[in-house]
Amino acid sequence: MPNETSFGELTRETLSELSADAIAVVPLGATEQHGRQLPTATDTMIATHLAERSVRLVADEVKVVLCPTVPYGFSEHHVPFGGTISLDNDTYIRVLTSIGRSLSRSGFKRLIFLNGHGGNVAPGSAAADRLVTELGLDLAVGLLSYWECIDERTRAAFTMPAPGHAGGFEAALISALAADLVLPLPQDQGSSARDDAARPLNVSDEMKGTTRFPNMWQASDGVTDIPAHPDPVLGAELLENVSIAIAEYVKQFDAATR
Ligand SMILES: [Zn+2]
């Protein structure tokens, strides 16, 4: 039997029946270098897992259809490290716009992009504006990055950046999802990798947030911190809490867009 919340398992007839009321959820991933220890699909795996889980949590109350994950994102800043497949900014905006427009033409009136990668935020927001404001589609669009769902108490408890990039936070999540994909820090590379990652940009966080610098990422080892001892228990806890918060967001979006 097909899963009634899985776009890919359903027929066009079932989907056109569902489309008028259901919220289409599209997870946004990335395929990019995640340092020496984490797999390139890290963001894709996290976004997909959280989307599946939160859809299951709300399925009794809200009609949702989970669409396939977009495995590529805007990752140009990671290309110089290797192990990265990126869509350039303009292409990515167009990809998300095409997905939204196709869903709209298939009858959907509500769409949530559930994002797992920082580089997707700005183009995702541009795509949402294009769909709703410029194209004037009869489509409500939500763009939620999963780390917006980490509560302040949890965030304060972290000694590492959350979510950061390819550091202890993401390592905790991946060690809970697929522990065998998290490599130990190679002994011989340990100290140099640590030194590289610790090489900070000589700018404040505010400047980093508001300004683009050439070779900004190359100033580090392509990670925000070294995930020396990923904690799967913490990772599982985080995945659970964030799934619940995303489910809450979906319910609020449902109430706001009925
Ligand atoms: Zn990541």
Topology readout:
Blueprint: H1 12-19, E1 23-28, H2 42-58, E2 64-66, H3 89-105, E3 110-115, H4 121-134, E4 140-145, H5 152-157, H6 168-177, H7 187-198, H8 205-210, H9 232-257
Parallel strand pairs: 1-2, 1-3, 3-4
The chain binds zinc ion.
What features would you highlight for this structure?
4-stranded parallel sheet; 258 residues; alpha/beta; Rossmann fold; 9 helices; binds zinc ion
Description:
Strand 3 (110-115), helix 4 (121-134) and strand 4 (140-145) form a beta-alpha-beta unit. 45% of the residues lie in helices and 8% in strands. The protein has a single domain (7-257), classed as Creatininase (Rossmann fold, 3-Layer(aba) Sandwich), CATH 3.40.50.10310. With 258 residues, it is of the alpha/beta class. Helix 2 (42-58) packs across helix 9 (232-257). The chain is globular. A 4-stranded parallel sheet has the order 2-1-3-4, sandwiched between helices. The longest helix has 26 residues, at 232-257. The two termini are 29 Å apart. It binds zinc ion (ZN). Zinc ion is lined by residues 34, 42-43, 117, 165, 170. Zinc ion binds at residues 34, 42-43, 117, 165, 170.
Strand line-up of the largest beta sheet: 2-1-3-4
Shape: globular
The CATH C-level name is Alpha Beta
Order of helices and strands: HEHEHEHEHHHHH
* pLDDT averaged residue by residue: 91
Question: Taking Cα atoms only, what radius of gyration do you get, to the nearest Å?
Answer: 19 Å
Our measurement of the CA-to-CA distance between the termini, rounded to an integer number of angstroms, reads: 29 Å
CATH topology: Rossmann fold
Helical region count?
A: 9
Q: How would you sum up the major sheet? A: 4 strands, parallel
Low-confidence regions: none
% residues in beta strands: 5-15%
CATH-level-2 architecture: 3-Layer(aba) Sandwich
Q: Compounds present?
A: zinc ion
Q: What structural class do helix, strand and pairing data support?
A: alpha/beta
Percent of residues in helices: 40-55%
| Tally of distinct domains | 1
CATH homologous superfamily label: Creatininase
Got a strand count?
4
